[in-house]
Amino acid sequence: MGGMTRETTSSDEFHATLHSLRVWDGPLPGFDPDAAPAEPLALFREWFLHAAAAGQPEPHTMSLATVDADGRPDVRTLMLHDADGHGWHFASHATSAKGRQLAGHPDAALGFYWPAVARQIRIRGRVTARGPQESRADLAVRSRGALAAALTGRQSEVLDSVDELRRVSEAAWERAGAEPDAPAPTWTRYVLDPAEVEFFQGDPARRHIRLRYRRAAPSGTAWTRELLWP
Question: Strand 187-201 vs strand 209-215: parallel, antiparallel, or unpaired?
């Protein structure tokens, strides 16, 4: 009975909290889609800088969605490394779950959500792996901790214990300090070349503005813009 009581209390508390939450109660930025630039990269950078200036924590974190060999979707949160004329950049181990999934099914999607300004951005396109030199350069400009994590490797493999993780990580930290240029062969920089980019501006009255960019041709540089119903 005690267990059932705790479970009931926990469930009641969860639902009470869930249904009490509100979003976008404060003033929100405006968005005039008619004044948006002709291509999405410029608008992404503008919104990114605005979110950072508005105090959005970690605006460079994003969700990456892929599919596995059986067509089942998968998603995780990781960091944006760049956004330029080639696309949206990130990095991981080629041997990780996402690396294996991208090797088999390179079409993927990215999602950014910045609740401080009620904005989100969705990007879909094809991902390609950059070469060893660019991948190594990606790691070289990051922190000692990032190098240690890359040297630890074995991402997505089954871990026997937390103690094993601690031992291997400590050794990797030592090596990263002693060898700042230590190679991490499976570390790979990826870039998603966008075919669609959607910008969503939330509105307290639920009249959200959604602007989608689509490439006019699969390999072209021109974009078609269209509004979507919220």
Answer: antiparallel
